[in-house]
Amino acid sequence: MLLLGRRSSNRLCMGACAVSGSAEIDEGLRHLKDEYRSGTDALDSGFFRPCLKLCNSYDRAVGYFTSHALVAWAEGVIHILEDPGVRIRLVIGPTLLPEDKAALAGISDERVRTQYCQRLADDLLKGSIAELKRGSSTARLELFCWLIANERLQLRFAFPAHIENADSYHEKFGIFSFSNDRHVAFTGSANETIGGYRKNFEYVDVFRSWVSEDRRRVISKIEKFKDTWAGVVPGLKIRHPSSSVIAEIKALGGTYRPTAKGSKPPLEPENRWRHQDHAIEAFLTSRRGILEMATGTGKTRTALRIASRLVSSSEVNGLIVSTEGTDLLDQWSLEVRNSPTLRELVLYRHYSDYHELGRFTLSPQRSVLLCSRYALPQLKKALSDNDKSDLLIVHDEVHGFGSAGLRARLSGFHNGFAAVLGLSATPERDYDEEGNDFIEREIGTVCFTFGLKKAIENGILCPFEYVPIEYDLTDGDRRRLQQVYGRKAAAEASGQPWSDEKLYREISMVYKTAELKPQRFRELVNERPDLLKAAIAFVETKDYAENFLDAVASITSAYSTYFDTDPQARLKELSRGELDCLICCKRLSEGVDIQHLQNVILVSSDRAKLRTIQRIGRTLRRDPHNPEKVATVVDFVLKAAPADHSDSERRRWLEELSQIRLS
Predict the structure, then answer these.
(1) Which is more confident, 123 or 41?
(2) What is the model's pTM?
(3) How far is CA 373 from CA 1, 186, 409, in A?
């Protein structure tokens, strides 16, 4: 039994943090009511704020938590607390997706069940860290991690096991404790975030230790939380964050130092992302069209907000996302799982080793399908017009949708969908009017534009240094060019003339694989070895890449290739900083988010801006650990190239972009 008359011994105060005096606490809590209800009472100013500002510890149990909810909850509480030394203990019931419930129901081995629950707990915490990393404020991320690493914010994860096929943990109560040995307990649906006490209709019952008729209830709530925290409640399994996740959090929060009482980390500048609101409104006006948004400006997040809005308003009841590349589709899978609205839908995947398209088409209602672009013809055959009328379809990297192979098989497919959305940094296909016309007929026109220049000026993307590396053609290169024209003449003589596009591709290959580029690359990295730290080098072919590996190996052993046959783990190793450099062809051009990436080396480039925008966009993402980041783009260009040569055009364009700074 807890003796409420004994002075609390768990006061956590740091440095010069002031302890609220008894009189101040008494005065601050004097006006607390027995109950609070939205519409008639101010839950924030009347209850949560006074308690949070004056307490020295706070215990909270709450269910149905997602990664996004944890971030919102923590920030809502942190920005009210006056003393960063307050101890917070939080028991969370992670929201279980339908597939999680099915998986747990099918696991009979208790050890395997425990491992699955541990993964769910860790994924929720990792998702919160990932969400904070996507923001632009280093302090927000570091404070959150510092609080956990230093046990100011302690977390436990609750999983009911009292019956077979139990659902999520859903208790909702809390206890505030104060330095004058007073306690306030509460139960009810309200939460401390702005969405909880302003947007929703909420209700709480309040119990105060100094009120005789409340005393027993307060003691009961304190003991109830104590048992839950200790993991001794029958039928309830409690998991801690794993040591590996805590180690990652400690590394992220290691440089943060709390400041004086009352200081707050900077909040995310809301107007920085205002363009996403404009993009959403522009699309919802017509429900068909393309968002042309620079890499790193939140295309995926904007699309998810559109989908969530349409699902919440029952204007659609399902979602299809189609793009190309396992890495990109895996990122979509993670984002859907972390969406408070979309994670409630059943998630199906049809790409790589996943083959779930058939299950989706059997019941597309309240479902999400993530699929490869080349699964769309099969989807076209399986979906009825009635099915499509309730679905939003999203094409990420929509420029790839206009290929000749897809045009023949997907014409008319998008007729009847409730909404059709395309996403791309560069939706137009260069030198392919038929493809562009097809995209416009099927998806719609560009309804919103937010380019690289604007993104850098607004501070969403970081500025960059442009380093052109000039190379000459060798006699061997010139002979290869002559051979191209010889093959063209032979084809014409045989009645099979080349198109202009084929001639350009053949000539371009000579420049992209020029013989002097490996030598110039070696000279570059010997002079500036820093360019191979947190770097990606794009070359034209796997065979040509062999010419660069020795130069890379002379600078760092922490490198790897990343071609179609290489495992995805290579990308994760670069993301974690375990690799300094990746050498790749086209695999990394689209949809990769590595915030600490510092350098991109363009050994080969296309005439079209499409590929270049995607590639440099990899390194222009803001890094919360390096707020002053200036990226580097190295570009191999032909020496003394004519003004209309693709290298000259690209050089002028990148030099202009490199001059842009935050306005």
Answers:
(1) 123
(2) 0.62
(3) 62, 51, 12
